[in-house]
């Protein structure tokens, strides 16, 4: 049975906004495990890896009953590919039709854009850790928000860094993946 594909990019979608985070409650898609593995495709340059791992760790330390775990054999991938010039990155969330369980995610970083994997990005670069943090939020089924100070804001800006989660983003992920009592 073919899996259903949901693509996230810089497109808005219908969600029910709760405070400063957005989750599509109608769809109710979520992982059925508290640990989700991810792998970095060979297209990801070595100097990028620490920034991507830090982004995954940020979500893992949100207080939710959820963690990203690096596993080089995982089918949940982050890759560097050529994309439409308007896209910085995009995430695909796969699940079976009629099911609410996420089965696989794929994040593509646009090969045609400049990314800074460490330190302050130059005026012509995107902060890689910020972009990865945003895309991992889509892996968790968080949507775009209207607050430009949040990682899950619907636009990314050159030379801007957002390397932490807002209170509302942490609350959002804790709502989807409640902490253990």
List keywords for this structure.
181 residues, alpha/beta, Collagenase (Catalytic Domain), 6-stranded mixed β-sheet, two-stranded antiparallel sheet, disordered N terminus
**Rg of Cα set:** 15 Å
Number of helices: 3
The count of domains is 1
Give me the CATH architecture, please: 3-Layer(aba) Sandwich
> Beta-sheet strand percentage?
25-35%
Global structural class: alpha/beta
Shape: globular
- Percent helix among the residues? 10-25%
CATH topology: Collagenase (Catalytic Domain)
> Mean pLDDT across all residues, rounded?
86
Read across the widest sheet, the strand sequence of neighbours is 1-7-8-6-4-5
> What is the N-to-C order of secondary-structure elements (H for helix, E for strand)?
EEEEHEEEEEEHH
The CATH class assignment is Alpha Beta
- As residue ranges, the low-confidence spans are 1-19
Total beta strands? 10
Oligomer: single chain
Sheet having the most strands? 6 strands, mixed
- Tell me the span between the first and last alpha carbons: 37 Å
CATH superfamily: Collagenase (Catalytic Domain)
Can you walk through the features of this model?
The protein is of the alpha/beta class and 181 residues long. The protein has a single domain, classed as 3-Layer(aba) Sandwich (Collagenase (Catalytic Domain)). Helix content is 19%, strand content 25%. It is built from 3 helices and 10 strands. A 6-stranded mixed β-sheet has the order 1-7-8-6-4-5, with helices on one face. A two-stranded antiparallel ribbon has the order 2-3. Helix 1 (49-60) packs across helix 2 (128-139).
